[in-house]
Amino acid sequence: DTEVTQTPKHLVMGMTNKKSLKCEQHMGHRAMYWYKQKAKKPPELMFVYSYEKLSINESVPSRFSPECPNSSLLNLHLHALQPEDSALYLCASSLGPLLGGKNIQYFGAGTRLSVL
Amino acid sequence: AQTVTQSQPEMSVQEAETVTLSCTYDTSESDYYLFWYKQPPSRQMILVIRQEAYKQQNATENRFSVNFQKAAKSFSLKISDSQLGDAAMYFCAHPLGAQKLVFGQGTRLTINP
Question: What is the maximum span of chain B, computed from C-alpha positions, in angstroms?
Fold first, then answer.
């Protein structure tokens, strides 16, 4: 089983709203990732959590706030977003950084976010 | 710099025929995997196949196989007996350290019935 579950599938929000994206995996993976993907482009890494600690923040604006409550769950809290933040947000998980270059990432189906 | 280059933005193939998608990469890593991911209109990035860099034997998964040329830093994907369900965006990727993936720009594959 290589399933990563993301909810909701679609989200429409205004620029003053606060919303959250959720990602869950039950594969015993200890690393989880958030990516942003614009149409016809590859995913861009936003955050990495390793053993429930934030290990990489790719200079993402503070209106995006990640949270890892436990090893199975990853949230992305959204506040005061801009229309240019509209994109597909993908979550991924992997066994963990100890595997180095053999660390395989498995992706969820994403949340399609539209900011009005 | 760690880079991945997919030189074919779009490819098309007739159903049941064979198609090859190209990928070249540059890395300073010594022991790593290389990956092909497929992203159909359903949006999920699906791992199609992986190759261990120290293995000379090319990886194969059913109708999908790779041609890995380590010295040339080339990692192409061959899809045999193409099916309509193979239509998708295909991304080549290699690791940057333990936690990052470097993706190519993608190749959009169309299957003609």
Answer: 42
Facing residue for A107 by CB, picked from B44, B94, B99? B44
The per-residue pLDDT for B1 is 66
In B, minimum Cα distance to A33 occurs at: B99
CA A63 → CA A18, A86, A87, distances in Å? 10, 13, 15
Q: Name every residue in A having a CB less than 8 A away from some CB of B.
A: 2, 31, 33, 40-43, 45, 48, 50, 55-56, 88, 90, 92, 97-110, 112
The CA distance from B90 to B45, in Å, is: 9
Residue in A closest to B47 by C-alpha: A106
Convert the pLDDT of each residue in A1-11 to its tens digit: 569 999 999 99
pLDDT in tens, B56-106: 899 999 999 999 999 999 999 999 999 999 999 999 999 888 788 999 999
Give the number of beta-carbon pairs within 8 Å between A and B.
69
Sign of the torsion angle spanned by Cα atoms B80, B51, A74, A16: negative
Higher pLDDT, B96 or A74: A74
